[in-house]
Amino acid sequence: MRRITASLLLASWAIPAHAESFFVSTQDEYAVAAQKLQPGDVVVLANGTWRDFEIVFSGTGAPDKPITLKSETPGKVIIAGRSNLKLGGRHLRVTGLVFQDGYSPTSEVISFRRTKTDLASDSQVTDVVIDHFNQPDRFQSDNWVGLYGQRNRFDRNYLAGKSNQGVTLAVHLDTAESRGNTHSIDHNYFGPRPVLGSNGGETIRIGTSAYSMHDSSTVIENNVFDRCDGEVEIVSVKSGANVVRGNLFLESSGAVVLRHGDGNLVERNVFLGKGKDHTGGVRVINRNQIVRANYMEGLRGTGFGSALAVMNGVPNSPVNRYVEVDNASITDNSFIDSSRITLAAGADSERSAPPRNSRFSGNFLQLTSDGESIAVEADVSGIAFSGNVLAAAATPISGIAAKPAKLTRAANGLLYPDRLDVGAPRDLAVPSLDDTGPRWYAKPPRTAVFGDDDPVAVGKGGSSLVAAIAGATGGSCLALAPGTYTIDRTIEISSTICLMSSGKGRATIMFARAPLFEIARGGNLRLAGITIRSDDAPDAVGNAVIRTAAQSIPANFTLELDDVDIAGLTVNRAFDVISIGKSAMADRVVISRSRFADISGKIVAAHSEIDDFGRYNVEYLDISASRFDTIRGGIADVYRGGTDESTFGPHVRFVDNVVTDSGAAEIPVLALTGVQKIAITGNRIDRGGPIAMTRTTGEPDVSIRNNRIDGVVE
Ligand code: CA
């Protein structure tokens, strides 16, 4: 260990002479240095990868002399393997670390407490990265960051790619020492969080229902939430007196939910949905909530996930249900090109208490014309409406004036109505991605899963194809020569791979071992213009052409089949084309312009989550313009059980297909259980089993039209 007296490096008036810098290269050296830290001391971790490193960082610094743990070079210290960081004490500062390629052996990656009684206060974690640091099993729960103690700051960090269960950042109020904390969570980049398909996919949660009667007084300010799609709650406020201010919510499915606790302030935030499904704004529950001067544009959420939802409450509500809205103030917000605001949302026999003593004033609304743009689900006489403008020809509520309005995009990139002084303030600043997270760590790209890179030619023969896939880098597109590729093994797909026929003729893959493809961690697969046959696959239980790995896959994946021809999978009674196993989650399964014939199993089996925890296997299933002939197991089986309300999917679209001789009287052509959005249109089904739809939760959006079923138009 090299020891450098800091006064040699810095002017002596800046840091007292006894402050020291410890440069450490091993975990043993770190342990020695960490034992005797004094105010102003700095521990420097050598550049490189530190594997299986459980960092305990504790001590007592001083307000102007924190104890610092830093990287030799920001971004060059990688914490990998089974690793985490615990802080205990006061005036600590951690900076420059990157957590990647691993996961925490405990329930948190960064804990602002060393033990249950040694909490961190007046401490800061800044310029730190946590990137895809996921538990191996998607339903092994952890939180990436746990805030405890008082007056801590978590700023300029990068957190993206959390795909396992548990909150990205949680503020804990379970002891008195952590309440009224005035923590600051600011200038962070909360990057893409894929759909979890279950509760527990929040990006931030402040408190829990059990302690929600306490104030947390946490400030969430100037952060970017980019594609945070984990579940219906992006930010779940479960405590009082918090401030959510000046953040950008970009293409994030979900909403800021004032779920429990009173007296929270949501102001000057910008929500840009860009037309993506389920993008929402703010949901109001409880007492004394203020929602003012926010800007919403391009949001497509409805119901609880509307651009604004003001809920009906439960009279004398238990702490874990819905406290009545009382004294809410919703003023000077703009709702532009958004699908819906919903008032008295969720009114039913239990949620029978309408909002009261509340104000809705100075808001500007320009909502999309399709459907009901202002939904009123119960009595709203407890809301005083004044000075609002709806850009429309008519209005459903007096107090919201209907006026035509021309919108102009201002220098800040936001739309404002010409000559109308209403809605969000003109001086709103939209946080930029560059102003959040460490400057030295690139933000994830906004590209499609399967790019359009030039394809790489694959030589003839099965071994050439196996070698090409094994050697492929992520995003590769491989062009197969005309002719037959005979494959004698299961091919693992652990990166993004596209297989297509070259322009010279169609390629056939003949496989002798099932599955042909196994989707593993990091795998995405697209097949285009390929024929697949299996003359001699063995008779094995669970046969499939494409199957997910037997162990859980922590990352979501995408499958696409376009112009694919698969036939003759009859060696046993349940030979599926695509089979998605337990704890696996597909973001999308897309089948288009394809042909399937003589298959004993199902085309898409996505019914493995039968524990009824509200989990499921596919978010979007889209089957179009395809032919299905003699598919014994039916085309698709999608299952979401339980009554959990934390997710938006699954979505199933079945359009313009031709189905003959498939399923049976007891075997549905489509078995859709708990699917939240169903579109079945333009299909022809002759001699097929039934279409079975079972509602388990929510209010599914079902559209079935223009189908010809056994000659009958339905
Ligand atoms: Ca939740």
Helix content: under 10%
The fold-level CATH name of one domain is Pectate Lyase C-like
Estimated radius of gyration: 28 Å
Helix count, per DSSP? 3
Strand order of the largest sheet: 1-2-3-6-9-13-16-19-22-25-28-31-34-37-40
Instruction: Please state the overall shape, judged from the principal axes of the Cα atoms.
Output: globular
Distance between the termini: 78 Å
User: For the report, how would you describe the main beta sheet?
Assistant: 15 strands, mixed
Structure described in brief:
The chain is mainly β. The chain has a domain at 456-713: Pectate Lyase C-like, CATH 2.160.20. It has three helices and 72 strands.
Could you characterize what this model shows?
The structure is a single chain. The protein has a domain at 456-713: Pectate Lyase C-like (3 Solenoid). It is 3% helix and 42% strand. It has a 15-stranded mixed β-sheet. A 14-stranded parallel β-sheet has the order 4-7-10-14-17-20-23-26-29-32-35-38-41-42, with no helix packed on it. Strands 5, 8, 11, 12, 15, 18, 21, 24, 27, 30, 33, 36 and 39 form a 13-stranded parallel β-sheet that branches. Strand 45, helix 3 and strand 46 form a beta-alpha-beta unit. The protein is globular and about 75 Å long. The termini are far apart. Mean pLDDT is 94; it is low at 5-15. Residues 199, 202, 231, 233, 236, 646 line the site of calcium ion (CA).
Key terms for this structure?
14-stranded parallel sheet, 714 residues, 15-stranded mixed sheet, mainly beta, Pectate Lyase C-like, binds calcium ion
Describe the secondary structure blueprint for this structure.
Blueprint: E1 2-5, H1 6-9, E2 20-24, H2 27-34, E3 42-45, E4 48-51, E5 54-60, E6 67-71, E7 77-82, E8 84-90, E9 92-95, E10 97-103, E11 108-111, E12 120-121, E13 124-126, E14 129-131, E15 143-147, E16 153-155, E17 158-160, E18 169-171, E19 184-186, E20 189-190, E21 204-206, E22 219-221, E23 224-226, E24 233-238, E25 243-245, E26 248-250, E27 254-260, E28 265-267, E29 270-272, E30 279-284, E31 290-292, E32 295-297, E33 308-311, E34 329-331, E35 334-338, E36 341-345, E37 358-361, E38 364-367, E39 374-376, E40 383-386, E41 388-390, E42 400-402, E43 407-409, E44 415-417, E45 456-458, H3 462-470, E46 476-480, E47 483-487, E48 491-493, E49 496-501, E50 507-511, E51 517-519, E52 524-528, E53 530-533, E54 544-548, E55 557-562, E56 565-569, E57 576-579, E58 586-592, E59 595-599, E60 604-606, E61 618-624, E62 627-631, E63 636-639, E64 651-655, E65 658-662, E66 670-673, E67 677-681, E68 684-688, E69 691-694, E70 701-705, E71 708-709, E72 712-713
The chain binds calcium ion (CA).
